[in-house]
Amino acid sequence: MATLSTRLFTRQEYHRILAAGILGPDENIELLEGQILSMPPQGPLHAAVVRRLLQALLALGYPLGQLISEQPIALEDNSEPVPDVFLVEPDPAGLDYEDGHPTAERVLLVAEVSASTLNLDLSTKARAYARAGIPVYWVIDVEAARLFEHTQPTAGVYQSVVLHDRAATVSLPNGAGLEVGQLFRR
């Protein structure tokens, strides 16, 4: 009997596939643990929460050059997720990362806004971000108006996962506090 296996891809192979035009530029795809995933389109609530998060981070002192939205992060050799929002250290070369996507070592915080991908964001993505050593990972559950805060990545697992409701305030890497409720209107 034949054994089935899944063909996994490296980031280098993934980029060759994209360059060859095999996958369209308008497709919402990500490379995660070697698999090319087709992500659902953003609905209005998801998009509104992303905008509110960006506005809040700007108001809390993060310059536009450190806020990145809907762009890839280079993780390991087999993952290139496209988080909704992430905070990054300034590019040491001063080129705004034009020579390559930010790597995990430069990322301070990743936030995934979750309307239809909660299970993926809390499992596979959390594992990938923890393995890469991303220090703070947020999953913002838009349906339940809450935020899962993952910290202390060790051996591919976040040692601390705290669930915050809309009344909570979460700490940012710069010491400022973000009120979870300001991300939601309902």
UniProtKB/TrEMBL annotation:
<dbReference type="InterPro" id="IPR011335">
    <property type="entry name" value="Restrct_endonuc-II-like"/>
</dbReference>
<protein>
    <recommendedName>
        <fullName>Putative restriction endonuclease domain-containing protein</fullName>
    </recommendedName>
</protein>
<dbReference type="Pfam" id="PF05685">
    <property type="entry name" value="Uma2"/>
</dbReference>
<dbReference type="InterPro" id="IPR008538">
    <property type="entry name" value="Uma2"/>
</dbReference>
<feature type="domain" description="Putative restriction endonuclease">
    <location>
        <begin position="12"/>
        <end position="176"/>
    </location>
</feature>
<dbReference type="InterPro" id="IPR012296">
    <property type="entry name" value="Nuclease_put_TT1808"/>
</dbReference>
